[in-house]
Design goal:
Length: about 40
């Protein structure tokens, strides 16, 4: 039971990390794109 729970939380943590990285890269890309377009 403990092993299953730990593996599930690990998968959730990695998923959250991947989502955060994707969101961060998207936000950085949008902001840099606006900066290039604005200037």
């Amino acid at each position: 039971m403990k092993k299953v729970l730990s593996s599930k939380t690990g998968v959730k943590a990695t998923g959250v990390l991947i989502n955060a990285i994707i969101l961060g890269s998207l936000i950085i890309g949008l902001t840099s794109g606006f900066r290039i377009g604005g200037h």
